[in-house]
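Batch job 17 of 40 flagged for manual review because the log was empty.
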Amino acid sequence: MASVVELTYYPIKGCAGTSAGEALLTPAGLAHDRSFMVVGEEGVGRTQRRDPGLALVRPTISADGGRLALRAPGFETLDLRVDTAAARRKVDLFGTVHQGIDQGDTAADWFTEVLGVPSRLVRVPPEHDRVTDGRTPGTSAYADSCALHVVSRATLGLLNRKLAERGVPPLPMNRFRPNIVVDGWDEPHTEDRAHRIRVGDTELGYAKLAIRCAVTMVEQGTGAKTGPEPLRTLAGYRRATEGGVAYGTKYAVLRTGTLSVGDDVNVVSWGDSEL
């Protein structure tokens, strides 16, 4: 029987994640996932693609979402009251304009110092109504696309075996920043074909394959950008039809509820892989 072995949410897009034994699943994914984003002076979202130092920022958000603590090596911890009432401003996420609530000059100064470039912190507004794409439409906050990213241990195991054949050390799961890690599927990339699944009292619908980018080359513990792995090896066996390499699967939320480590993962319907 397949089950959930890891749950992780990422309060600030591009920053370190928070592991959880139990998490509320909302229409936009795990509670607090990518609900904040760091932007440049023009409102363009920062990611580890160009700012790998984001990986060193470890945010902690209170259960009610009202307080946010920011930590980074060599910098003082900043504790913030989350502002949901300030004026909205336009932010740019991969060329699409959304709204954000600026969290003030103190947060902006902190991120500017940590990253070494002018930066501000914004929060997704309560009225955020983004519609995500894929076979099952849904919503998300500031995630790249869909609400949830799922990867199985078997999938990582296959990649690490192929890396070993090249003399490359194995990679940890956090290199791929999933929300849910599943164990118990013997076949690698089973998540490609699990098109509707029930976990605990929730239900997820397959949206699309996760197309990987340069973030997979950033060591999450150090913020150092490496290369060319794992993209070079993935390109040898996981090339997507429409370009890029696919690793892991994106899901939309069909039924909200609570997820816990140890929950069974039951596949309600199967489909063919899009690869």
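Reviewer: the log was empty due to a logging misconfiguration, but the result itself is present. The mean pLDDT is 97. Unflagging and moving on to job 18.
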